[in-house]
Amino acid sequence: MKTGLGIALAALLATGQAYAAGTTLNVGMASADAGKLDPHVATSTPDKGLLHWMFNGLVRIKPGEANPEFIEPDIATSWTTSEDGLTWVFSLRDDVKCHGDYGTIDAEAVVYSLNRSANADISAFAKDYAAFESVEATGPLEVTIKLKNKIPSLLGLLVPYHGGNIVCKDAVEALGDEFQRTPIGTGPFMFAEYQPQQYVKLVANPDYFRGEPKIKEIFYRYIPSDSSRDLAFQAGEVDMIYGKQEQTWVERIKQVPGAVVSVMTPGEMSVIHLNMKMPPLDDLRVRQAVAHAISRDAMVQFKGPDVTLAALSPVPEGNLGFTDDVPIYEYSVEKAKALLAEAGHPDGVTIKAIHTTLPGMLTTMEAIQALLREASINLEIETVEHATFHEQIRKDMSQVTHYAAARFPVADVYLSQFYHSAAIVGTPTAVANFSHCAVADAEIEAARVEGDLQKQLEYWAEAQRKIMAEVCVVPIVQSMQLWAWKDTLDLGVEVNGSLNLSPPVTEAASFSQ
Amino acid sequence: MTAFVLKRLGFAAITLFAVLTIVFFIVRVLPGDPAMAILGDQASQSALEALRVRLGLDVPLYQQYFVFLGGVVVGDWGVSMVSGRPVIEEILKVLPATIELTVASLILGIVVGVPIGVWSAVRRNKLPDYLARIGSLLGLSFPAFVSAVLLLLFFSIHLRWFPVISSGQGSGLADRLRDLALPAINLGLIMAAYITRVTRSAMLEVLNQDYVRTARAKGLAFAIIVWRHCLRNALIPVVTVVGLYLGILIGNSVLTEIVFNRPGLGKLIVGALNQRDYTMLQGMMVIYTLIVVLVNLITDLTYGLIDPRIKYS
User: Fold this and answer.
1) Of A187, A274, A325, B88, whose Cβ has the fewest other Cβ atoms within 10 Å?
2) Taking CA atoms, what residue in A is nearest to B29?
3) pLDDT for position B169
4) Torsions phi, psi of A402, nearest 5?
5) From the list A43, A232, A235, which residue is nearest B39 (CB)?
6) What is the pLDDT, as a whole number, of residue B253?
7) Summary mean pLDDT of chain A
């Protein structure tokens, strides 16, 4: 009897045996549950991170990098472009199989997938493909894309990110609505199981065209509590975790034996948009005073030097088109006060910001508030719930808007969404131009259709210089993506960045023991 | 008895209708746009408008309301705006986990709380009483998420007895018990603290009754007086508290589910609130209301079992 009880107790208390090592990768993601797992619909970081390991594009950014300058073939083996840059012809591999029994990828399948991405009734990213005139199968393994006008980075739209993920036609048609719960791709890992609020299980794709993955299964576990995720990593129950964008997280996780902490691009850039239509910010000197009163070095120290970079330009560092050759407003309380006095505000000014209650963003804004106070700039912060914040700033209700965002790393995206006059909030074509900035429209538009990369880069650089000269915005810091994994996990590539915000787990990844 | 139950069920239907109506309108006056929550902040105005049409949010509110009510009546609670999965399916998948945790916590709370409450009352103003009162006060004042992290640190990290992730590690009985242990202890101890205090208070009142003095004068064993006669008479307020607290327990399970990473209604409702998932929120409210109504009904019926003098009419 005692022996029986002992065995039962041992079985009850024995932990860890369910975490098969060697070929099973357990990942802890900061989310309560999966969302829509259709890559043409998924917009959240947790969903994109998972789909990253299941899909291919016509081209891809080299695993471990996030910058489009590292674009290389994926499903396409090669491509050509016409002299006017409006016609692109892609030759495809002949050995790309869809997961399960959903056939192979040929030109028709690619045409179907790209047309689906451009369909606003289905795709969340349709507007990215607005410049597509046609996508045609011009051979069994040849696809021709014709554009209405030149766009900054056609290849950027064809990497496995958002609408660039190639879905399998047979699977989409056979599964219908179920496709968003059972994603079928061509990548190294295949969807196997979903347990609500617990995990999505992926298994190795034995027919993957780059070879069968060494890791045989992935449990993508939804662990919303930061402390629980860290403890699970510490206890060895997960091999890889999504990090918290804090210096203390990096310092704490580095103490865990055998932990590798990865700081990846693209970073989420925090900026302060200054509404140029609202007094006193309609005066350039007041905006310059605000810029002089904010110390980027102090903000980097505040946010953590291991997890942030100082932001210099309206476009994040690492984006194609970024330049640091822009007007820089060095930290100087004296200059700030002098500019205010010159503008007729010798006793300082009061400006107001509607701000989210999200703690990570609010503490940043409070630090900025303290810096501005030194220069007699009284920043009044009205806090509202996050959804209300988004609603109100888009109704043009805030003088100062603190915004943090990561975008596809091509300068045009940031410039168009935040600094082109068409994107001014409160207008029918509004996106996120909170400052009413309209000084660089000509350069932004010229860069979009410029075929010569050098000229395109110069247009983007000039746009950034103009935006900074007008102080539409004060860039603050760039917060990097943080992940940690066990040192026994070898991803097979050096990891500097990831467009889909999760580390590249490919056919090359393996455990060393 | 049957008439009583039918009458209560009738009231329950009215309550449910009222809750559904209130919830329907409250979730729609909450700030935030479901379309933007789904498509993200890069979506164009036209894409947002198109999604609102697809979600049926473009039609007048009263039409949305009648469509919703009609759906509830025929058992169609719609699909989640975020995941696209049927609401009822999503809820039913995690409901057993919440019920499992709640029942386990309840049993633990009763098994620990009632004896300690009785012991504390019998040893009034002596060391056991002081210990029980201090212990129950700590249990009531300790935030559930703090005790949860402390339990994890001690039992999962230091002793390695239990997993940090209390879900999905296996389907056997031993696995499930191991998964359940720490979350149930965390919630159960809070429940035990409540029950200890109520039991002690009720027992103190009963112990001063004339019939207890008479029983002692007749030489009846003290243990029999306490456990057979006093406790039964003290149970009515305990059952009331357990019934009331059960609803709170389900609500308190939110943090426990998140910290121990268990599936459940708590995690579902937090996600639905963050994403402004109207259909999911409505479905959740139906379930919560049903649970509270059902628990209250069971509590009322239990009174009759404990005290035969109580009649239902």
Assistant:
1) A325
2) A388
3) 57
4) -90, 120
5) A43
6) 79
7) 91
CA A304 from centre of chain: 20
Residue A513's pLDDT band, with cuts at 50, 70 and 90, is low
Which residues does chain B have within 8 Å of residue A255's beta carbon, measured at their own beta carbons? none
Return the structure tokens found at A252.
């704490």
Within an 8 Å CB–CB cutoff, is residue B176 touching chain A?
A: no
Euclidean distance between CA atoms B167 and B96, whole angstroms: 13
How far is Cα A375 from Cα A372, in angstroms, rounded to an integer? 5
Of B83, B165, B259, the CB nearest to A237: B165
Does B14 score more than 90 pLDDT? no
CA dihedral angle for residue A437, residue A441, residue A442, residue A448, rounded to 10 degrees: 140
pLDDT band at B42 (very low <50, low <70, confident <90, very high): low
Contacts of A121 (CB under 8 A, 6+ apart): B50, B54
pTM, whole model, 2 decimals?
0.83
When CB atoms are compared, the residue of A177, A235, A390 closest to B164 is A235
Asked if A432 lies within 8 A of B41 by C-beta distance, the reply is yes
Closest CA to A116 of A15, A39, A44, A32: A39
pLDDT band for A2, please (50, 70, 90 cuts). Answer: very low
Res. A476: pLDDT tops 60:
yes
Contacts of A20 in chain B (CB under 8 A): none
Is a pLDDT exceeding 80 seen at residue A17? no
The verdict on B45 touching A (C-beta cutoff 8 Å) is yes
Q: A235 and B160: CB-CB below 8 Å? A: yes
Residue with more model confidence, A318 or A24: A24
Sign of CA dihedral A44, A50, A55, A59: positive
CA distances from A279 to A276, A286, A472 (A): 8, 9, 14
B210 Cβ partners below 8 Å, 6+ apart?
none
Q: How many helices (H) and strands (E) does chain A have?
A: 14, 19
Phi–psi pair at B188, nearest 5 degrees: -65, -35
Q: What is the ipTM of this complex?
A: 0.77
Residues 429-448 of A with CB under 8 A from B: 429-432
A431 contacts B44? CB cut-off 8 A: yes
Residues in A 83-142 with any Cβ partner in B closer than 8 A? 120-121, 124, 126-127
- Single-letter amino acid, residue B297: L
| Contact at CB, B31 and A388, closer than 8 angstroms | yes
